[in-house]
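Case study.
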Amino acid sequence: MEILTSQSTFVLSDELLEKMDAYWRAANYLSVGQIYLYDNPLLKAPLQLSHVKPMVVGHWGTSPGQNFIYVHLNRVIKKHHLNMIYISGPGHGGPALVANTYLEGSYSEVYPDISEDEQGMKKLFTQFSFPGGISSHVAPSTPGSIHEGGELGYSLSHAFGAVFDNPDLIAACVVGDGEAETGPLATAWHSNKFLNAKSDGAVLPILHLNGYKISNPTLLARIPHEELEQFFRGCGWKPYFVEGFEAGDMHRKMALAMEQAINEIRTFQKNAREKGDDKRPLWPMIILRSPKGWTGPKSVGGLKNEGTFRSHQVPIPVDQAHASNVELLEQWMKSYRAEELFDQNGRLISELAELCPTGDKRMGANPHANGGLLLREIRLPDFRNFALQISSPGSVQGQGTVTLGNYLSGVIKLNGKNFRIFGPDETLSNLLGAVFEVSDRQWDAQVMEEDEFLSPSGRILDAQLSEHQCQGWLEGYLLTGRHGMFNSYEAFIRIVDSMFSQHAKWLKVTRELPWRRDIASLNYLLASHVWQQDHNGFTHQDPGFLDHVASKKADVVRLYLPPDANCLLSVMHHCLGSKNYVNVVVAGKHPLPQWLGIKEAEIHCAQGIGIWQWASNDQQSGPDIVMASCGDTVTLELLAAVSILRKHFPELKVRVVNVVDLMKMQSELEHPHGLSDADYDSIFTLDKHIIFNFHGYPWLVHRLSYKRANRNLHVRGYIEEGTITTPFDLRVQNKIDRFHLVIEVIDRLGNLGSKGDYLKQQLQDKLLEHKHYVQRYGKDMPEIAGWLWGE
Amino acid sequence: MEILTSQSTFVLSDELLEKMDAYWRAANYLSVGQIYLYDNPLLKAPLQLSHVKPMVVGHWGTSPGQNFIYVHLNRVIKKHHLNMIYISGPGHGGPALVANTYLEGSYSEVYPDISEDEQGMKKLFTQFSFPGGISSHVAPSTPGSIHEGGELGYSLSHAFGAVFDNPDLIAACVVGDGEAETGPLATAWHSNKFLNAKSDGAVLPILHLNGYKISNPTLLARIPHEELEQFFRGCGWKPYFVEGFEAGDMHRKMALAMEQAINEIRTFQKNAREKGDDKRPLWPMIILRSPKGWTGPKSVGGLKNEGTFRSHQVPIPVDQAHASNVELLEQWMKSYRAEELFDQNGRLISELAELCPTGDKRMGANPHANGGLLLREIRLPDFRNFALQISSPGSVQGQGTVTLGNYLSGVIKLNGKNFRIFGPDETLSNLLGAVFEVSDRQWDAQVMEEDEFLSPSGRILDAQLSEHQCQGWLEGYLLTGRHGMFNSYEAFIRIVDSMFSQHAKWLKVTRELPWRRDIASLNYLLASHVWQQDHNGFTHQDPGFLDHVASKKADVVRLYLPPDANCLLSVMHHCLGSKNYVNVVVAGKHPLPQWLGIKEAEIHCAQGIGIWQWASNDQQSGPDIVMASCGDTVTLELLAAVSILRKHFPELKVRVVNVVDLMKMQSELEHPHGLSDADYDSIFTLDKHIIFNFHGYPWLVHRLSYKRANRNLHVRGYIEEGTITTPFDLRVQNKIDRFHLVIEVIDRLGNLGSKGDYLKQQLQDKLLEHKHYVQRYGKDMPEIAGWLWGE
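After joint prediction, the assembly is written out as follows.
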């Protein structure tokens, strides 16, 4: 493989160096200004305490380093005509990114009020860490960002997600050395084994070793150089080191390292694209070791500040109690010589403004960082073509995810490089294997003879066992304007509880920003769910992600529990076509009776909740009891219970309700999908007993419906019982089985007389008999496993 | 540093090799038997389909490799008199660990019914992956285990947690190459920067590269040898490679590698302990590259099996549909020559049994793996000595975590090596800094001049920014019989949602195992909570961990929200002394008015809920309204509201209730701390309006109390509003502030006449005035920030 080694002698001219240094000073000046100043932004007047914010908060430590990186990225973007986005991993780089996008003009284009003049600069400063203003980390409100600071760990997987299927894009990803200690980031270095140099873009990681986290040193800054280099070579990267503190020296080193890195990226891509070289490249990365709080005060109050953890937040306290520090602050700010950088009106002088790329090449204006701008609609096949034929309810057995797999392979075929499936090596186990008939898994490490479905260019990313990576990649992919889905075991999606929360927060906030365009929803398919774990048992049982998601803002989250395969098709079709939501779809993979033909399924899913007339017998009179369910396994048991009830008590009027869209249970005032009280009451009645068989924890249904009039709601669901056992016995242990349901109906109604007592006794005997059978034979009694509707 | 290099020429004798190989065959035989056999355990009769389980499930792939490791660990334990535990990282190594503990006799000691004879072996086989039996991963029921398979990622941090302060202990930690791809495991390699060779034990990681996960190859098995070695050297380990498949060759290599590793561990420890060498050692690790499903069928149905992903679960299907495979199974099982290994009664022959260590040296009987056996009670100082003096409610401002920090330093002083504090670099930020007056942070990487509180022997592990590591280390520390606490930002504890779940599951299951002894509770202190985030904003706001924890089994979880510093002292004192729980304590760090003297706090916390008579005026007549709160900030606002109400409506009878122990809200039938209905009703009344100001999401209170008689419960709490703003404005945006509370009381009562209407208008004006003030000055109106009770 040819590398243009001539480039490694690249020397930054003194003139350009001076200009870049001046630009860097401008960004640093704006960063300090944001943290401190309320007025007098250009320091035209001597600085007074009244010019300083009443409450000075924010983070300085990472900002100068990121400003340094930004100006150097600008240089290579211009020189090499790069298409580049900037991902700011460190928790609190807000001042830096805001400063840079302001300098390049992209900030004022989005926020015209923050104009490129003294008045605008004043507003820029004031809004930072100010009530109603902007946070000290990079946020949705920051132009050019697809990655929020705050919670750490996901920058690198976001960067990879962004460049998948974007062959011209380079994601420059600044990884803080604090963030690098998190688990998700630590494993994200291996993302390079999933990148295709031919059809994907590149990630340029810049590890920013500034040596400290909040108050501790960082691990990677405190191991020998040799170990650090071995670590990254072991992760498959070629590190370029840029280390020091003297500005001129550092500019030269950084410029050289950037040249080398860009040159290598280009060469690898050329080799792959023009020469068909499909060996995994040793991609370049940069390790920037610079002082924390670089260019800040050397010491404050007798304690060293620049280069220590003390520069993490506000280096110099300035307030009533520290009024004399105003002078120190002024001295510090004046060290940047703003008068040389901005004209009298507060605008960056043109000589420096010329250093910026222009138009969409500015990282604050790159459309990939506002993915909705680039979004192409997903093309969806007609889901009806993948339907199971159902002659009558319960007459056919089907497996939800198997049916869905066929549909998903149709989606893959139609969407070229606009759709991907993500999973932690569970796609086959979740029985979505049909997708491998149309696409491989993307994989760029070694392949051996017995391997299946691996190639450098697959549509499916499921070959790393890391839910964090799946979630991070998918988020990056969606945020840059594409479509996708994450399939996971239901229990282990909890691993990304916190990542989901942060993405939901991102979506909530972006909805309030008119310039942020719609992006595709994040779709979860939770398969291999709680109700059948066979040899896995208790560790694999957890339906609580539903509760977690339901706690988020109603305009962002949607929860679907289709009762059978055709409903699953209809629901997933809907989700894949939606925007700006997080959709959670729960579906099993094991054979279950099927209920609805595809037409009925479509109507039922569109309504989200409905009375199943074919299973009900209260049409003339209204019900004596309402039997409701939400989820696949629990619907089977509910219908079996109804079947028993109707056989033994033909005069009993039973209404059967099925819920697909869980948020229907909530009030319309709280969720856009919620039923009005009138609709709810017409389905559930005002006072009849409702036996509700729910897939997850029962209290979720209670809490969604707690304001409804009918207080006779009795919810069954998963109550953390059972482990290694048969499918039916697990239901019995959690009391969602047909027998417990019928017994509850008998107890609740209390008016079924001796016939009721007799049946109850029979069912209790049956439960005992089943228990003994399972203990003896290790499987369910055949007549239970084989039950069909109406028998 | 001296390494006894003579040992590197160690050669395993042929005789011992033969015996170890035979022992390995015995363990493999028992592993296969567990997966398949229902009867005929010694294959005395020709194998029939009826001898095979009706439903064959389980995992073979990892088992032979782990059996291989176990027999080699046994050798070094015996030879070097080691004190060693075995941590099985791969998801499904159950058959191996059960087989080995059975062979060494520790299994039958715990489960006498599974005796060391043919009858016992039959039961051993039957129970595996059988209803009511044991899971296919290592579980609490497995003797010698502190680590459950199932969810992956935590083996290495558990291992480190186990050896902290256990200088003689070695944790042999088998890391599966699938698990190695998870984030938590990836960053856990860096745990070696926190280990003190002098006062801690050692971890011997054994990376088991068997090449496949479920259906994909693994990353670390598919990168060049050079990268793999660099990776681990970069992580600070010295890897010994044991690669191959031929048994004799592999035994010799493994024995040599183990000798070298143990020798190095001993040498490092000697240097540290006798020569005072405190340089971070390059600890040894072993990389075992062996075929997945080693010794299993070479191929099945024409497809290669041993050495491929196809050996992950059950290699040969044997059931009615595959009846002819019985022969293949028999052939496979006979390849282990059980007749040479077990006597006629089914007992391991003495020549092989001699290979096991004896007594507590057997890994299945090591007391460290049943930590309660070693538990020494924690010594707690008198928390009353750390109390704030409160002359009257609201007269003093205090900071909860600052007060707690003093107490915790007292705990550290009293407990030598029996207590540790864990945190992700947030201990100072959570204002627990007093602990650093009595202990450093443990840190074994480079130290520089400006660093604070770092040394190789600290009691506080807060220098890695990883919640996963904190949780994993603490779990390992507790499970081996010590005490500890995890302090975290409230929002980011969600990162370990799933780890918490698995630990809670472990606790639930161990309570049902009489031989598992009580261990100390896992205590969370969630500080820097949702109600004051200043410059951090929305990403740092999430009180939902409470909801998550509340969904677990009631006999395991406890949630405490002390309203002030003295209550925090009392609560934490209680938690630190408790056993077998997960305690979650939420407390702020910012100055707030204090309410209770230490005596009152102690009584209040012991009750968990109470009417605050000093704030109520309904003593004579019963209340017109009940004003309740749970949490520190919300209690301040509630009391301020009550103060306004009592000033403006002196005739209104207000009852003030404070909840410390959230589970009091639940019924006694659902939680051991729950109030009886009678007690609940006597506090909250049957029908009066209850305005409940809650720290977290409001629906949690609704769901805990949904079966209570009084339906007039109106809960306020965090509703996901607000970001960068002032503390009071955040409360206003979420409507938990005093003004919204009073307005709700006026609206709910509806009988306060024109005086009520007038006050409502005044308060609405006040809210508007405050909003403008905040926007203008960036801080709260001073008279609000400075409010004291009774004004």
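Observations recorded in class. The CA atoms of residues 523 and 552 of chain A lie 15 Å apart. Chain A touches chain B through 124 residues (CB under 8 Å). We will return to this complex in the next lecture.
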